Amino acid sequence: MLATESEPMPDSPLSQSPYEVLGVPSDADAAALRRAYRRALRHAHPDTGGDAVRFHAVQAAWELVGTPEARAAFDRGVRTVAPSDAPHAPWAPAAPKPRRDSRPLARSYGHPGGWTRERYLALIREWAGRGVTLDDPYDPALVRSAPRDIRHVLADALAEEDTARALATLGIAYTVWHDLATDAAGPGMPPKLDHLVLGPTGLIAIQSEDWGGPVAFKRGELIGEALAGERPIRALAARAKAVTRPARVKPTALVIVVPDEDAAAPLEIGGTNRGAVVALVRRSRLASAIRDGLPGAPHLGGADSMEVRARLQATLRFA
């Protein structure tokens, strides 16, 4: 059933709303909300045996809905923005912002997040039902009421767009391709590789993810409750191989990038996969990790990089 009332917009489609963090329904009155906040704060406080992460989450939730003005804005799906920025529809693609510096950007090809957004739009319309008109497929009420697998698709689209913005800052020495077709990856594999980066620090295949929970390495593969049986490193290796094999080149690194709160360390190495270094990287650390070079991954000289780029340009296809 579709939601019919305004619903708050969390930072990620998979995040808990402030009401869920505080343990109250979204229509709770102000007194009930304040009681829930005090109770949650008391239980989460580190001095009384609580958890610091949970304590900060409770405080952040209160900042969003603790006053009538903040709550009204949150329930409308409005976020606080800088004066120079204009708010846009919840979850919708953000309008390009004017650049504030003249530093050259990495050369980029493809449409980051494009395939995944199209997938989300198809799924949300199918779930809403035939004949139902969705005035805004990104409305926060609709997003919050959708099944988790559909919200996960939207979360991934947002993650891919965030990664693309970070990769653009690498500079002119790097080339970035987004949404590459992986038809040869095998049955059951996603039909695309999110990002492929080529530069002095190697040829790096990247998957942007938001599972809505923490993940970590165990024996060269990622584990975590939110994965629900997925094997992300295996899938990324297969997709990277499908993309690079026609060009007769091999990736030097396989990277999965997640929201900062979902990785215990800024950069974690999980061994190698067919000679490629495997890494889990926080989103805020991605650009610097690539510029610095991933530990153990070979660098490419100028001539080698140019040859690899030419081979890839002749064979790559977009999803």
From TrEMBL:
Name of this protein: Nuclease-related domain-containing protein
Natural source organism: Agromyces flavus
Pfam families registered for this protein in UniProt: DnaJ
Region ranges (Disordered): 1-23, 83-109
Top-level lineage group: Bacteria
Record lineage: Bacteria, Bacillati, Actinomycetota, Actinomycetes, Micrococcales
Residue ranges annotated for the J domain, each copy included: 17-78
Biased composition, class Low complexity, residue ranges: 83-94
PANTHER family: DNAJ DOMAIN (PROKARYOTIC HEAT SHOCK PROTEIN)-RELATED (PTHR44240), J DOMAIN-CONTAINING PROTEIN (PTHR44240:SF10)
